Amino acid sequence: MSKTKRIMAGILAAAMMVPLAACGGGDNAVSGDVTKITLWRTNGHDKEFVQRKVKEFNDTIGKEEGIELEYVAKEGDLDQLIDVAYTSGQAPDLYATNQLEARAQKGQIVAYDDIAGTEEIIEKYGDKALESRHSYNGKIYMLPVTSGTYGLVYNKQMFVDAGIVDENGEAKPPVTLAELVEDAKLLTDASKQQYGIIFPGKWDGWYMTDINFVSSASTGIVDGYNPQTGKFDYEQQAYVMDAMLQIKRDGSCVPGTEGFDNDPARARFAQGNIGMKIAGSYDVGVFTTQFPAQIEWGVAPLPLIDENTKGMQYGSLDGLYAVNSESVERVGEDKIATVLNYFASDEYLIEQFKEGLSIPCDYELVKDVEVPDEMENWKTFASFTPFSQCPPVAVKTEMNGEKVMDKLWLDIWNEEPSLDELKVILQEYQDKVNAGIEVYQEEHPEYDPTPYIIKDWKLTR
């Protein structure tokens, strides 16, 4: 067992909830035998947990290794704040970023491969790293260690009351899109303002979650991009769109879809009288604290076009922090590696999971972890990890001002085309996107799409 793991095992048993004051980054001077390392993240749902774990690190590993870790939770656009910090020489040592490729090109961040002491975590998680998301030009800059999954949440009592139950009388969520449509109809009683499902039509992520992610459960293809071929394929999305439009025609969804952002839609589901909603694992926290559920709810895998054809449904992969290139020499790669190993340790990830904050992308770490009854749905979301995956970045395409799919979906929702008409619409869009691949390549001859074409990419379960 490594020194870091031995120390971690000891401190987990004595975790203390002590808030850590956040200060400005950039002052990375070595004071006596203590080196300060600054970490910037957005002010997220796990702020208190990270604060507590940073305090524990400083009191144990940090004290032994001469490291003081300073965690700064930032409000606003973190990447913009980091850009400003670089211009003033105040950039943090470690930070989260959505601009990995650009920062690697500018030399602002250093690859984990070039930091001695990260070999163990690279060996464990490096094969999950995706080009432009976690790596660039074959080198890893942000290791993926946690994940998020998606599913269909449902109101158990409404299913029981409607007689949609299994042989034990328990609520039986739909497995296929056809069952989704039928269940939504059975669950709806407009006279009681009770509806089978709610759609967040005003939310800019509506297409992505309710159409795109649902489609991926059957095809393994996310946002139309097939990594095996390097081409776009929207054919199967027609069946998902058709099912959602049939629900609309049946009057089985909450009226006024176009006026619902995701938060109001989640609040309505939590209040009751809504049978189903597409949701992410992060919604467990939403239904626990932000909009506490007044119902007993469950979660099932995303519905399938055909129950015999199962794709790798969409899942997110979140990476460890990018490392400021200037910090390696100033702080020391051994100290940087110590901090990275701490945040990637099994013990840290398991405790994070137990508190309902993140799911390790290595599901084996938590599959046998016991959680309280009230966290049953969190455990279920985690169980989707083995058949969920984050897709590669798609090859670039030039659409020349054409509507992108999330906007096109709004037109489709309003116009309600038939399935045959949907197939024509999506085929035309697919042809434009694929033609745009060649257009982009002609306009940018230096662009290399090969890292995003993975012939052995797994699409089915």
Overall 3D shape = globular
What is the percentage of strand-forming residues?
A: 5-15%
Rg of Cα set: 24 Å
Tell me about the biggest sheet? 6 strands, mixed
What proportion of the residues is helical, as a percent range? 40-55%
Query: How large is the count of helical segments?
Result: 18
Mean pLDDT: 93
Show unreliable segments: 1-28
| Structural class assignment | alpha+beta
Number of strands: 19
Q: What is the CA–CA distance across the termini?
A: 35 Å
Keywords: Signal, Transport
Pfam families: SBP_bac_1
Signal peptide: 1-24
Protein name: Extracellular solute-binding protein
Q: Would you kindly provide a written description of the structure presented here, covering whatever features stand out?
A:
It is a single chain. By secondary structure, this protein is an alpha+beta fold. The protein is 40% helix and 15% strand. The protein has helices at 3-12, 47-59, 61-65, 78-87, 100-106, 119-125, 156-161, 177-187, 206-219, 237-250, 262-271, 283-290, 325-331, 333-343, 346-354, 376-383, 405-415, 419-443, and strands at residues 30-31, 34-42, 67-74, 94-95, 109-110, 135-136, 139-140, 144-148, 150-155, 195-197, 225-226, 231-232, 274-280, 297-300, 313-314, 316-319, 322-324, 359-360, 388-389. Strands 1, 2, 3, 4, 5 and 17 form a 6-stranded mixed sheet that branches. A hairpin with a 2-residue loop joins strand 6 and strand 7 (139-140). The protein is globular, with a radius of gyration of 24 Å. It holds the Pfam family SBP_bac_1. InterPro entries: Bact_solute-bd_prot1 (IPR050490), SBP (IPR006059), SBP_1_CS (IPR006061). Keywords: Signal, Transport. Belongs to the bacterial solute-binding protein 1 family. One of its GO terms (biological process) is transmembrane transport.
